[in-house]
TrEMBL record:
<protein>
    <submittedName>
        <fullName>HK97 gp10 family phage protein</fullName>
    </submittedName>
</protein>
<dbReference type="InterPro" id="IPR010064">
    <property type="entry name" value="HK97-gp10_tail"/>
</dbReference>
Amino acid sequence: MSARMEGLGELRTAFGAVKEDMRLRTSRLMVASGGGVIRKESRSLAQRQGLKMTGALIKNIVIKRERTPDGLTQYNLGVRHGRHMGRNAARQLVVAKNGRVISAVVDDPFYWWFLEKGRNVYHGDGKRRRGVKSRVEATPYIAPALDNKRAEAVEAMATRLAAAIRKANGQ
């Protein structure tokens, strides 16, 4: 799921006024400030919808910067989960279904996609997809956050750009 921001033409022309050596840093700060507005709104929506049972889902809504294979940088707003929790994720020893002791990540919101998009869930013996089928209804919180705060995100980016231009002019 990706969405594009509209109405950024004025920002692009003003961005030309920033010195060459400051462009990369300024662009990163601009996107981070705009994404921060949307991240804050998605956390607030998730909490209002009652998705704060352990708090794992809400505190793991993050913005991640990635390099694409063609050399571009993209920013993703989503939920950190599973093996993507990082090296600093807290771990605990738990007993698995087969009786072995394994190391599991604490507060891993692996279920975030079920809540955002909805999904069929099968309850069975864990070996096959048989058993009782139930549906987890979608309660989206990331997509509506983008719709709600799109204008504020662009405004935050413009504010960050104006600060960079003032800094470049020595003011």
